């Protein structure tokens, strides 16, 4: 059967993608950030999955205020790179896994989670920046990707509890798939940042690192944190962190298995007025 072997958590700041695409990764401003992902790139080369289930949020690219699904799963065979106003990023197209994606949709919907099934969708920096951070600049991504878009842009957004429970349903769906697949689940977005208003530029290092601690050690309690705490402590865009709870909910310990191993943890500020967090958790073999 398919199995989840690890979860990866990372910010998806658009300026990171621009720094990669424009060859600025060794500039003094950017070098400390990219140094924090050198271990991760090597780790991924040694632990390359067959499929990555990648949780991210769309930035008014595939969806607009005219249509805002709370949870949307990409079931296509391929996903083109979106033009976000300055041309598509020069990265490979994303190759999907329609069979596993459709199986997950069937299983999760039967567990009473309402998903929007998307058979045609362009993917933006929310998905491509994490791929670039973990994979570098390959000719083709080294695994298939199932995009899973979550609305954290327009309220009402899903609760941390709902996301955590959804992650558990996704794990059950993947483990019920007959093919022998190595699957990783990635949660992206965050950490603390606010892009507008009198608190624009807010970064809360203490809260961010406490979030990482709780994500590792007590995700069930973290899932009960209300939206207002995210907004108050981590800024208006800090709410993106509920997406990390989908990935964490899919880990084995949540279903009574052993606690995951922390393979890597990294935190850096600033990156374009945003705090960058990164974590790799491995399930026991």
Question: Can you describe what's shown?
Answer:
α1 packs across α5, α4 (98-110) crosses α6 and α6 packs parallel to α10. The chain has one domain (3-282): LigB-like (Protocatechuate 4,5-dioxygenase, Chain B), CATH 3.40.830.10. The strands form 2 sheets. The chain has an 8-stranded mixed β-sheet, with helices on both faces. With 285 residues, it is an alpha/beta fold. It is built from 10 helices and 10 strands. The two termini are 14 Å apart. A hairpin with a 7-residue loop joins β9 (261-268) and β10 (276-282). This is Protocatechuate 4,5-dioxygenase beta chain. Residues 8-276 form the Extradiol ring-cleavage dioxygenase class III enzyme subunit B domain. One of its GO terms (molecular function) is protocatechuate 4,5-dioxygenase activity. Its EC number is 1.13.11.8. Keywords: Dioxygenase, Oxidoreductase.
Structural class: alpha/beta
CATH topology-level name: Protocatechuate 4,5-dioxygenase, Chain B
List the uncertain runs. none
User: How does the overall form come out from the CA principal axes?
Assistant: globular
What is the overall number of helices?
10
Distance between the termini: 14 Å
Structural domain count: 1
What is the helix/strand order?
Answer: EHHHEEEEHEHEHEHHHHEE
CATH class: Alpha Beta
In brief, what are we looking at here?
The protein has helices at 14-21, 31-35, 38-46, 98-110, 125-135, 160-175, 205-217, 219-222, 227-234, 242-249, and strands spanning 3-10, 51-56, 71-74, 78-79, 94-95, 116-118, 144-150, 182-188, 261-268, 276-282. By secondary structure, the protein is an alpha/beta fold.
């Amino acid at each position: 059967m398919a199995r989840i072997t690890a979860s990866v958590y990372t910010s998806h700041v658009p300026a990171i993608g621009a720094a990669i695409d424009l060859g600025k990764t060794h500039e003094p401003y950017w070098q400390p950030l990219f140094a924090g992902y050198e271990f991760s790139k090597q780790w991924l080369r040694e632990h390359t999955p067959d499929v990555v289930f990648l949780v991210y949020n769309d930035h008014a690219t595939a969806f607009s205020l005219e249509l805002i699904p709370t949870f949307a799963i990409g079931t296509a065979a391929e996903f083109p790179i979106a033009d976000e106003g300055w041309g598509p990023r020069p990265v490979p197209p994303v190759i999907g896994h329609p069979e596993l994606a459709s199986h997950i949709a069937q299983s999760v919907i039967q567990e009473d989670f309402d998903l929007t099934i998307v058979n045609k969708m362009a993917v933006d920096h929310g998905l491509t920046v994490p791929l670039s951070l973990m994979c570098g600049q390959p000719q083709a991504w080294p695994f298939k990707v199932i995009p899973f878009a979550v609305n954290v842009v327009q309220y009402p957004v899903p609760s941390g509890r709902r996301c955590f429970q959804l992650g558990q349903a996704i794990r059950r769906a993947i483990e019920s798939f007959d093919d022998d697949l190595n699957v990783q689940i990635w949660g992206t977005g965050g950490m603390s940042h606010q892009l507008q208003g009198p608190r624009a530029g807010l970064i809360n290092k203490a809260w961010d690192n406490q979030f990482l601690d709780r994500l590792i050690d007590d995700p069930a309690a973290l899932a009960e944190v209300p939206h207002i705490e995210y907004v108050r402590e981590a800024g208006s865009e800090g709410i993106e962190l509920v997406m990390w709870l989908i990935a964490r909910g899919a880990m084995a310990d949540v279903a009574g298995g052993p606690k995951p191993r922390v393979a890597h943890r990294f935190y850096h500020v600033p990156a374009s007025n945003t705090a960058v967090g990164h974590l790799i958790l491995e399930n026991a073999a």
